[in-house]
Amino acid sequence: MKVKFVGAIDGVTGSCSWLKHEASNTQLLVDCGMHQGTHDTQFKNHERFPFRPAEIKYVLLTHAHIDHCGLLPRLVKEGFRGHVYCTSATRDVAKLLLADSARQQNNDYKQHHVDQIKWHAIDQDDFSWRKMLRLADGLSVNFMRSSHVLGAAMVSVAWQTSETDGSGKPLLKSICFSGDIGCQDKTNCYLPLMKDGFEPFPNADYLVVESTYGATVRNPEHKVAQNRLAALSDAVERTVFGKGGKIFIPSFSFHRAQEIITDFIWLAEEEASEIEPMFHERRPLRVALHSALATKLCKVFGKYLSARISSGKYQYLNNELPERIGMNGDQLAKVFTELGAGRKVALPGLEVEPVSGGSQDGDRASDWADVIIASAGMCDHGPAKHHLEELGKDSKNTLITTGFMSAGSAGKRFISKALDPMSDHTGADVVEMSHYYSAHGDQTKLLDHIFNLEGYTASMRETVIFINHGEDNGKTAFKEAIANRAREIKPNDRRISEIQLANGQWFNLDTGRYEDGPRPEEELKKAMLEKGLSADDVKKLIEHVS
Ligand SMILES: [Zn+2]
Ligand SMILES: [Zn+2]
């Protein structure tokens, strides 16, 4: 068995890992994502695949974000005829996001390529997480839930080796791909919707771990659900009932918009139990959802939020949520189903209404609504662009950030100016809440993902870690943090034998070695170490030679 990391090795996008199981002559991919960001990065979306799409038998998909599934239609266009294995929720979300992506000019595929994807939902009937699915002789896969977004899962691929255990049975080895790691854990499910990610794969020989926030330890205050709700509540009170203004929330269509709606349901529920409610007595808070895609996605949330696995437990739903919002999973799912059908939902103290159409409909919405949730999340296009221009002008209004905005985006420019005390900003206030809503675990959570076996230490093996899906500083800081934690040798921690930064070379998972010998920079590092040279010495040497 061999692995080659094709994407997400320089940066956080374009996730794609290529596996070759020679014993059964099977080639598969874990994720097939689009490169996002600068022009140079996006150019990679049009480069030739390093593999022959027709020879790939399976794609195992961790979740529906475009940087993990966005090149699937191109893969199909270029000859892939195999199946995409993922959860039903991931399939349904991916279909909508890929359809949206197919409409964009700069992509190499059209809707009919999206329609040709052959999906295999892993959770159709009698499903439990970690159920072994056979891919070929001596090759299997199992999925385990992750709390990143609806439908997200980790993927563990296992293969038979030529070694045998004590009883003569062939020994299995496995490599587990984290996908994107969410924030929820057993002791603190502070984000609205998802159950904790149940993570330990104690007998994994290899763990591939993302490192988006590998260098960041988040403020614990931001990991408290009540703090997030209090910040939201303050903004509503000050803006809507204090100044008679509007709240504008730019949001990603997938998952974030649905989380924000859920928080407003919670806010209304909390309000109802207050002695002096801020808005219940007067009138319901009116929320507009202005995003065709987010509205369609609500339907998928309606379908899966109350889904249960064979044990009878919710497949995804945060166990703490029903008590917070005063609704069970079925009731919340019904809210999303209604919204998904484009219908207004009226609850005690709260009305939520999807708005379709362009800027005129948007203007009508900003007449009647107190809160406008709109996409795209960075305000560069879609209804959010229009609302930023209109609502952003008025100092009575407040813009709440709920997600990452890249430098240079319209949203980021507005926020930077509004928060700069030296600027002449006269428009809407800004309340930053993106750190409350991040869907990516911070360094603490990532370390927990690797080391915390939750007591399953009996079958523990020494594990090799591959770090991918991060910027350079995130990866190196994370590598150091892993090494430090490994040195502590806590009794219930996983044992680590090696930490590698994922690179583009073939790695033989049976021998534990790179196929094509060490990379030049690794050779240089080794030589420097042997000769006791520093980077400065090498620089001087090079200058001397040239
Ligand atoms: Zn993701
Ligand atoms: Zn990702």
Automatic annotation (TrEMBL):
It holds the Pfam family Beta-Casp. The keyword Coiled coil does not apply. Residues 13-228 form the Metallo-beta-lactamase domain. Residues 257-414 form the Beta-Casp domain. Coiled coil: none annotated. Keywords: Hydrolase. It comes from the Bacteria. This is MBL fold metallo-hydrolase. The keyword Hydrolase applies. One of its GO terms (molecular function) is hydrolase activity.
